[in-house]
Amino acid sequence: MSSAEELVKRYENMLFRVALSHTGIREDAEDMVQETFLKWFRSKPSFASEEHEKAWLLRVCINLCRNLVKKKGNRGQVELLDIYPAQDTEELYLIEEVMRLPSLHRDAIYLFYYEGYTTAQIAGILETKESTVRSYLHRGRQKLKRWLENEEV
Fold first, then answer.
1. Does one domain contain both 90 and 71?
2. pLDDT exceeds cutoff 60 at 98
3. Which of 47, 58, 135, 151 is most open to solvent, judged by the fewest CB atoms within 10 Å of its CB?
4. How many CB atoms lie within 10 A of CB 105?
5. 15 close to 61: Cβ distance less than 8 angstroms
6. Is 123 found in the same domain as 94?
7. Among positive and negative, which fits the CA dihedral 53, 58, 61, 66?
């Protein structure tokens, strides 16, 4: 198996989830994942580790998605049941609530809780300060908490 095939197999699902969370449209998300891999293939960057490679792919994918959303306007809506591995309806509900967050909060929460990145790593991916990432996480958690508390009443 070639390194390109290995790369695609290793990261396609993660990149698709990230792209779909930004675009909200399955076809657009698929296009953004494909564009991400094309950028990798054209530039053939070398990385110090697999984590650097993963961070580079995430950064490229997020940038492509943001550019597309700016160009096309509002995000679409997609059924999340098929793409997010939720164990039960509560977990799926939480994922859906995370996807409602503003883009920067959603990215920080997703990368921190679902992909296991540290705030320093997320800062590198999002090209911002670590304190800003902590702020995004805090604000995102606060919004989720308010939304979830209102649902329980």
1. no
2. yes
3. 151
4. 21
5. yes
6. yes
7. negative
Can you tell me the mean pLDDT for 96-104?
A: 82
SS3 content of the chain, % helix, strand, coil (to 5): 80, 0, 20
- How many CA atoms lie within 13 Å of 81's alpha carbon, on the beta-carbon side? 3
Determine contact, residues 63/51, Cβ cutoff 8 Å: no
In this structure, what CATH number is given to the domain that contains residue 30? 1.10.1740.10
Q: How many CA atoms lie within 13 A of 58 on its CB side?
A: 24
| 132 and 62 co-located in one domain | no
Distances (CA, A) of 93 to 73, 147, 151: 26, 11, 11
Over residues 15-31, the pLDDT tens digits come to 998 888 888 788 899 99
Contacts of 78 (CB under 8 A, 6+ apart): 20, 24, 25, 26, 29
Q: Rounded to an integer, what distance in angstroms lies between the CA atom of residue 32 and that of residue 61?
A: 6
- Last residue of one domain, picked from the residues 77, 110, 142: 77
Last residue within a domain, chosen from 31, 55, 77: 77
